[in-house]
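Office hours follow-up: a student asked to see two folded examples consecutively, so here they are.
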Amino acid sequence: MAPSVRSLPAPKTTRASLALPLMLGGLVCMLALPREATAITIVDLVWTATTGSGVTGSSSIDAANGDTLTAEIRVTADAAGIDAIALSLRFDASFDDELNLISATETCTVATCGGMTPITAGVLGTVESTLASAGSVLTMEAGTFGTGPSSTTFTLGSVVFQVNNLADDGVDVVGFFNLPIDGVVDNAQNYSAAAIFNGASVIPEPGTGLLVMNGLLGLAYRQWRHGREARGRGSYSPASADELLASSLFFAVATGRSASGACTITCVAVALPATFPSSRVRTTST
């Protein structure tokens, strides 16, 4: 007699048994979908004070070794607003030890930052630059549990540097490099690491020698015109070699403080009298 085969009843499908798979599937789908495009936050580092002669008020400033420079970190939010922001700075990425960090300060308050305050007290840490590595400020941050500022500009913090080894090497301070910590969350809770940071530069100030060079060029042009007119009258009396040498020596001393190319400019200046050899000095009596 063949054994009988019992058919097992099909499992019942209930709402409860489908709930967990559906929830997990929905979560996976949400993570896989691209997030809504967020507002673009713009951050500017603006030089606001100097002990030197540079002009403040922009992201670029003329400076000389020994100058102390202060910059504010200004954040501009658009209509989507900012619920939280975290920003780090990197400086001297060219490994020339151009700037020495003196201080880095978070300045946000509820009143000045549209309801946001620092999430932690002070910056998380700083690293000084060397000839072998860049320096950094980690991290300035601020946030709110409500709606943050929108369509406005506020100051997140400030940094103070001393110019140590001045070089004309392009952008000296950049931001938003410490990912994924750095970034912006807007008022709709969308995260973005695509905020725009306009880097800041320190450039050599024009040396006094450049101003003197202009004077010497003017003197040479005047002498050339004088000689040209005098030759037409049969009389030519250029400046004496002693006068030109005195001007050249003054120019050489003035370029001593030039931030770059001092030797080249000085050598050219000293060579100027050679362009007026005594053999070319001619007078014609009438």
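And the second, which I mentioned at the end of office hours:
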Amino acid sequence: MLLLAAMQLGDMLFAAAIAAISVTLLLRIVRRRRQAAARDARSTMQRGHGNVTARVPSGAPLEREQGAGGGLPPHSLKEIPDAVVRWEIYLHEAGRQTAAEIDTKLRVLQAMTGEADRAARRLEQAIQAAAPEPASGSSPPTDCPPSEPLSSDRAVIQREFQHVLTLWDYGFDVPDIASRTSLAESEVVRILRTREDA
């Protein structure tokens, strides 16, 4: 009370105006939050109950309820501009076409992946069938110098070399190639380096 008594009339009017503006702004904020909450609740309910909300070109929302058969009630068709209806139909058609294209491309990709897997298996089987088994009791003749391998050994080495390069081209890593060809990893790396040097 002493504070109010000590204030002059101009100061009191200024303080009252500030208080009135503050109260007005607070009330507006509360009202806008309530409207936003109601709008969110309405849009959630519309999505849950099958209602459709479209926007006309002016920006005003146009709400319409779907009938029991999924179509629009007859009286609401008069309220919707033809351009909005055509636009909605176009969007539904475009969505269906896009989904169909994605399904088709996915099936083609799956078929191609399966065919590539089958081709890789056939290639591995052909490579393994072409590789001769070394004779267990055979030893190289003594008259041949040890620095030069026999011609059959060259063929075996060449096949192993090609097998390693083929597996590398198919994307296998060094440990996988070593396990598939029964070679040491260092030997596989040496073969791959000779290819890079060439």
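Two things to take away from it. Confidence is low (pLDDT under 50) at residues 49-69, 140-145. The beta strands are 52-55, 61-64.
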